[in-house]
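In the design runs reported in the main text, the only information available to the sequence generator was the tokenized backbone. The following block is the verbatim input for one such run; it is reproduced so that readers can re-run the procedure and compare outputs position by position.
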């Protein structure tokens, strides 16, 4: 069975490509979420010598939650957070704004990796998301958080049976999961490509990720956290009382450190063995007019993903734009990450074509924003946690695209590890055991590319996993979610 996203090589495909090129022609190379006039003003760079009880490296969700939770645990603690760019610069401000209660990259993935602990992992994930919603309400963070669930759709025949199994699995863990046939799912969100769907309610939702990050930063400062932007960490030195964190223009003598640098090159070089930076790309449309919005249906405006290995994710924004991303994840040789890679014409054009195939009744809709960003993946698709330097430095990295909510859990784990607390979180196998490391270059790049091609081949051949993917499965490597 041919994947429906691969267009035929004929005149109609040429026309579709031309329309897609026209649709993205005027899209600004900017992140929609942060391209706003009310973006917070830059915070000052750290200069000179400072001291702190806790130094947090990274101003994304992991770092912000770590700073907040540390101050809530000990209001007298001196907490300093440093960010190399701006708050919400990285994945925390570039993602699609999907908020999941899963800590394991989905139920299917979790049950295949940690079946004995899955009930605990599900409960902890739900408690984590509930705590985020409670904090957003308590602190008055205007981030458009809606726990509206999501829909996963089948766009190829073999995915229909897979969704039936997914719905059954969710119901076994107490979720409100409705299996929809083609007519039912199309009646909810109008797309001729849908063959079936699973509608999950009360399982995650959507948020404006940049406003969430900005709101958390404001909360942190209100609790007494000092935040410095444009402050890149260059290394660590030992001290009698902890760790000296060196920056480009200063240093902080800290008792303990939390690293939450996501896919960006970490100041702790050993983490590069386990973290793979994968570039993901996104488009956002102009606001839909009333007639377009009516044709689209989508009354509950939940997030949608399709069920392929190479999958799309999409959602409506508060002003009736459609954010459409995913599918074409790209790894660059040597873990390369820099701003020149945030734009990729071939991928943005491909996404525009896929958008047109998904929503042909929105022909003529143009895109206003296009961007890319890096996802920090591990070989098992779930975060890695640990400490070093005599438990002076802790890290939580590797969320593999599901970190908007799980990052709060990761921050809690990192703080538990620093404090030496024996908690339900730190006893988890997911926390105690590291994933398999990625091979070093020059082997890493061809291995990743081989895996990427194998996943695409599985999508194109009724989901059948070839020998390479079966070998990875045998060794407990991810790629099955």
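Verbatim output:
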């Amino acid at each position: 069975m041919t994947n429906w996203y691969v267009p035929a090589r004929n005149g109609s495909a040429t026309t579709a490509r031309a329309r897609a090129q026209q649709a993205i022609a005027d899209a600004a190379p900017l992140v929609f979420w942060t391209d706003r006039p009310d973006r917070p003003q830059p915070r000052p760079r750290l200069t000179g010598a400072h001291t702190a009880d806790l130094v947090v490296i990274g101003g994304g969700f992991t770092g912000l939650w770590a700073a907040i939770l540390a101050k809530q645990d000990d209001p007298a603690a001196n907490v300093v957070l440093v960010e190399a760019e701006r708050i919400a610069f990285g994945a925390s401000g570039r993602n699609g704004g999907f908020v999941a209660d899963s800590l394991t990259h989905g139920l299917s993935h979790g049950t295949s990796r940690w079946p004995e602990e899955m009930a605990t992992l599900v409960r902890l994930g739900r408690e984590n998301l509930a705590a985020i919603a409670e904090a957003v309400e308590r602190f008055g963070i205007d981030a458009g958080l809606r726990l509206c669930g999501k829909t996963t759709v089948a766009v190829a025949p073999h995915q229909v049976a897979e969704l039936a199994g997914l719905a059954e699995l969710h119901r076994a863990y107490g979720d409100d999961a409705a299996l929809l046939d083609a007519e039912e799912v199309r009646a909810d969100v109008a797309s001729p490509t849908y063959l079936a769907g699973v509608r999950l309610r009360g399982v995650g939702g959507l948020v404006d990720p940049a406003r969430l990050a900005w709101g958390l930063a404001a909360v942190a400062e209100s609790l007494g956290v000092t935040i410095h932007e444009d402050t890149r960490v260059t290394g660590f030195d030992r001290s009698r009382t902890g760790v000296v964190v060196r920056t480009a223009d200063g240093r902080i003598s800290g008792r303990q450190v939390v690293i939450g640098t996501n896919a960006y090159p970490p100041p702790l070089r050993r983490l590069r063995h386990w973290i793979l930076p994968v570039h993901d790309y996104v488009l956002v449309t102009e606001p839909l007019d009333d007639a377009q919005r009516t044709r689209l249906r989508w009354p509950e405006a939940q997030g949608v993903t399709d069920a392929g290995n190479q999958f799309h994710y999409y959602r409506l924004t508060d002003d009736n734009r459609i954010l459409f991303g995913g599918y074409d994840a790209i790894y660059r040789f040597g873990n390369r990450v820099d701003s020149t890679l945030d734009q990729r014409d071939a991928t943005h054009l491909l996404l525009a074509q896929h958008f047109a195939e998904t929503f042909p009744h929105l022909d003529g809709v143009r895109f206003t924003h296009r961007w890319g960003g890096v996802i920090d993946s591990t070989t098992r698709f779930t975060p890695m946690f640990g400490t070093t330097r005599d438990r002076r430095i802790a890290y939580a990295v590797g969320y593999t695209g599901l970190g908007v909510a799980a990052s709060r859990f990761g921050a809690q784990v990192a703080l538990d590890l620093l404090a030496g607390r024996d908690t339900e979180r730190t006893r988890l196998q997911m926390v105690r055991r590291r994933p398999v490391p990625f091979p070093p270059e020059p082997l890493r790049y061809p291995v990743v590319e081989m895996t990427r091609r194998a996943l695409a081949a599985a999508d194109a051949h009724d989901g059948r996993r070839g020998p390479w993917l079966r070998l990875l499965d045998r060794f407990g490597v991810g790629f099955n979610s």
